[in-house]
């Protein structure tokens, strides 16, 4: 998040002592309180199959209901990360999402994992524990990580293997914005690439940015095909974008055009039970 938000995380801290400034101390206290008092909620956004728009899974996205005001994760995840609070928070998120699947309220769910969680010693054991506690089928769970979780490629690969052995899927979120080497990617036990919203949003624009986005998506799709990976385009807001992305060969689509993140409805169809990703390795 720090890299993505161009130093936003650092702005929270006193430049010299790396201490939270008073306003952030207050937010941190409020975050602790929120975790204890269950002020967090997961919303779920559909992920559809590109060729027929069948809902195949949902992505869980956290919100903080702070005294009637809904706070975006972009406004508290960075502080949760720098303070370490992301660790208990992340466990809550995973347990909540796995429980929804175990109860049959969703067939498949994608859960975001922050780099601090992923690189924490014992992360895969934590995941294993939650899978066991909730009794969920691990094949129905996808963990979304970002390239910044893989800065230490040796350790990253080790954790990815442990997760694969547990049976959960792993996807690379915001793909295309970082600088993973393609040869490194080909060796990772990762099966899903989520193409960053930035490219989706430019895909139908005339001019250089549009052209660049189209060619980049084309390249990602070819790469994915060559290594047996599946692609999801994020941030699809128009029918035209959906059409273009499908024509470019993206396997799945996600975005406001198909549905906004929403609370689980009592009668909500739990997404198709068709096999979504066929994991070979
Ligand atoms: P992300 O994982 O890349 O999630 C996609 C974000 O794009 C979500 O923002 C989603 O609401 C938004 N989005 C989806 N479709 C569209 C669209 O068509 N147009 C536009 N403009 N936006 C769209 P959200 O929910 O605010 O989450 C922001 C980020 O916060 C996420 O990005 C993820 O990195 C992080 N996050 C969210 N929930 C969690 C969580 O439970 N744990 C962790 N560690 N991070 C989370
Ligand atoms: Mg995500
Ligand atoms: Mg994303
Ligand atoms: Mg994103």
Please provide a brief summary of the model.
The chain has helices at residues 8-11, 22-36, 77-83, 86-102, 115-119, 123-134, 153-166, 182-187, 197-202, 208-226, 239-247; strands at residues 40-49, 55-66, 69-71, 109-112, 141-145, 169-175, 192-195, 230-233, 252-254.
If you had to describe this structure to a student in words, what would you say it looks like?
It contains 11 helices and 9 strands. The protein is of the alpha/beta class and 281 residues long. An 8-stranded mixed barrel has the order 1-2-4-5-6-7-8-9, surrounded by 4 helices. Strand 1 and strand 2 form a beta hairpin. Helix 4 runs parallel beside helix 6 and helix 6 packs parallel to helix 7. The site of one magnesium ion has 4 residues, from loops.
Termini separation: 30 Å
Computed CA radius of gyration, to the nearest angstrom: 19 Å
Shape: globular
- Per DSSP, what share of the residues sits in E-state strands of 2 or more residues? 15-25%
Domain EAL: 24-275
Protein name: EAL domain-containing protein
Descriptive key words:
single chain, 281 residues, alpha/beta, eight-stranded mixed barrel, 9 strands, disordered N terminus, binds ligand C2E, binds magnesium ion
List the helices and strands and how they pair.
Blueprint (H helix, E strand, L loop, with lengths): L7 H4 L10 H15 L3 E10 L5 E12 L2 E3 L5 H7 L2 H17 L6 E4 L2 H5 L3 H12 L6 E5 L7 H14 L2 E7 L6 H6 L4 E4 L1 H6 L5 H19 L3 E4 L5 H9 L4 E3 L27
Helix pairs in contact: 4-6, 6-7
Organism: Deinococcus oregonensis
Protein name: EAL domain-containing protein
